[in-house]
């Protein structure tokens, strides 16, 4: 590997060194503050190095990793989201008495795995990145091991993630058996025109592995339980970084291996998208738990992203990427509000915890309202622009059935977001709410997210330009 | 020689089914060792004797034997002897032994016969494996090291027990926690009855 290879890899190397830096800080002295600071420093360095790497891009570093504008965009998104999760976790963990510092090792290691997924161009790095993302998540979901729910959620995730990985590996093996290639580019070259018996079944099996991580129907069964059981900042991480890396890979794999030409596979994805939009929105109506509502809503949102993916072309990829960015900001904000309201004993996940929130915590209630409205896709928020972009890309590709289902199910989705909103603005006698002050780090992160949300909703132009340039590397 | 492959594959499937259906951890582990040995024979029939040897040395040899030792050594003392006796009653070794004997017969046959007419087609030796790992797949080796680190930290955190002196200091919290834990049955009974 040459000097420019290392330069191109530098954001990834910084991300890989971050968990080690946190470990060294724990080794010197176990201090929550120092561990969080080490994690933040590592993530910031990685974000800064993106600029340097952009000069060396595009570059294929060994057959496994490709560094181009697209992978750098997603790496930046993942690092920034992890930074927000670290800030949110800090105040949340201050209340706990267990060993807290390990959370930052696991968070940054999982973020590295997600970034590897976004940069992979080969089955080997695809699988290893997926596992580097999954294995820390088992520990993160069950992090508060003294509680019962997190351990149960962690176990569920462990068993289902293991099963889905085996599907994925079997799919890769089938395709390798037929084509004799594992890098996406070579697969595209060998697929060219000829038909192979095992490529379609293999692609569907790979799709099962991808679908599990994205939590799309019918691979969504773990989602509500894991969202409910995991500590709130970890839930934010599972909902954003883990899905974002996988979506980046989905786009890259299907665009660069020419698998978009396999029409049976695309039909399967269309069915998955429809099932996710319908199931996610309808089941969210039946929930009383805020974390579960957000879990089902995330299933629906991934369905919308698949619509953008199905639209295809550069506009489809750009719409999906924009939607991911808006979804990151919104979901981090929503789970951030849950996080800062959580107490030592339990997370603030009951609808009851939000009753009359506006009269006790007007600023926080305003931020949460903005996040919910963005999830619902109302104007002036990032969520609206995202949905608009998806519909526009879909209309250009004339996939009308999917567009109509998207619009109808979003209208249904409005109802459960409004339900949470009404509860927040209900006037109620404050029964001695003994609230601690908002944690400074988490509060700051929430404020930044809220500003970003509105800014993206009003002035999406610069981001759209950036995303168009990034996805140009894909096609 | 495809039937050698299918025989070893059948042994692997049978041993794995026995592994996941055993209620006793020791019995399951014994079958799991056989399952890994069968996978090694599968590799051998496919022309990868080096990977087969690694599978035996690392998985069936080191890791699984370590598992069995740890499970057995976690219980020491008088009661443990009785417990181990109950784990390993007379006939339990027969199943894994029969499956292992099938694999042994296969290996003996393959070694006696020498290289066959069509199987193995190409033999992948240690040199090729090393060149692949430290050539194009160098990043893969590095990524695997990150994976092991993450797994180690996660296992360490979940397996960590608080120190006795800390425990006494924070007993009241623990009591409250376990009380909540017991009543919080999965069916959702811990939610307030009047929640909307």
The CATH topology of the largest domain in chain B is Four Helix Bundle (Hemerythrin (Met), subunit A)
Helix-strand string of chain A: HHEEHHHHHHHHHHHHHHHHH
Helix content of chain A: over 70%
Counting H and I runs of at least 4 residues, what is the number of helices of chain A?
19
Helix content bin of chain B: over 70%
- Per DSSP, what share of the residues of chain A sits in E-state strands of 2 or more residues? under 5%
Globally, the shape of chain A reads: globular
SSE string of chain B: HHHHHHHHH
Largest sheet of chain A: 2 strands, antiparallel
The number of distinct structural domains of chain B comes to 2
Broad structural category of chain B: mainly alpha
Indicate the overall shape of chain B. Answer: flat
Biggest beta-sheet profile of chain B = none
Please provide a written account of the structure.
- The complex is a heterodimer of chains A (475) and B (196).
- With 475 residues, chain A is an all-alpha fold.
- Chain A has one domain (3-472).
- Chain A is 77% helix and 1% strand.
- In chain A, a hairpin with a 3-residue loop joins strand 1 and strand 2 (65-67).
- The model of chain A has no long low-confidence stretch (mean pLDDT 92).
- Chain B is mostly helical and 196 residues long.
- Chain B folds into 2 domains: 2-125, Four Helix Bundle (Hemerythrin (Met), subunit A) (Up-down Bundle), CATH 1.20.120.1200; 137-182.
- Chains A and B meet through helix 1, helix 4, helix 5 and helix 6 of A and helix 7 and helix 9 of B.
Give the tags.
heterodimer; A: 475 residues; mainly alpha; two-stranded antiparallel ribbon; 2 strands; 77% helix; globular; B: 196 residues; Four Helix Bundle (Hemerythrin (Met), subunit A); 2 domains; 9 helices; 74% helix; flat; disordered C terminus
